[in-house]
Amino acid sequence: MWRSRTMALGYQPSDKVRLMFTMNARGRLSKLPKGYYGNAILSPVVETTVSELCESSLSYTIELIRKAKQEMMEEENMQYMVDLVALLRERPPLNIERTYISSDIKWIGQTELDFGWAKRIGGGIPATGKT
Questions:
Q1: Superkingdom, according to UniProt (predicted)?
Q2: Which CATH number fits the domain that encloses residue 70?
Q3: What is the pLDDT of residues 55-70, one digit of tens each?
Q4: For residue 49, what are the domain limits?
Q5: Nearest Cα to 65, choosing from 18, 104, 97?
Q6: Burial 37-71 (b: 16+ CB within 10 A, else e)
């Protein structure tokens, strides 16, 4: 999907494009306090050029994603992500120009969230920039 979307948008071959995806950090991040019930999601990012993405084999893209997931599971990288999110709370929305965001969050139970006023129908991250 990332490749097809990138090709359809007609970016220049030398443009950098990114894929951001979510990972559940529970069971991977040892410093979560006992009884913590908040978000525990990491967001690795893969970056490559349009030409590398569109002209390389599918195995190239899979390897980029595999490597990003593997690196994100290293304890210091997970802690960095936690610290970064805490820092970004005070900042304006994230500019994610030319970034495709993919998420498989079926395992975090967000469809079961109940804040007491209505059933959750959607969500996302605040972002600015071109698609």
A1: Eukaryota
A2: 3.30.559.10
A3: 999 999 999 999 998 8
A4: 2-123
A5: 18
A6: eeebbbbbebebbbebbbeeeeeebeebeeebeee
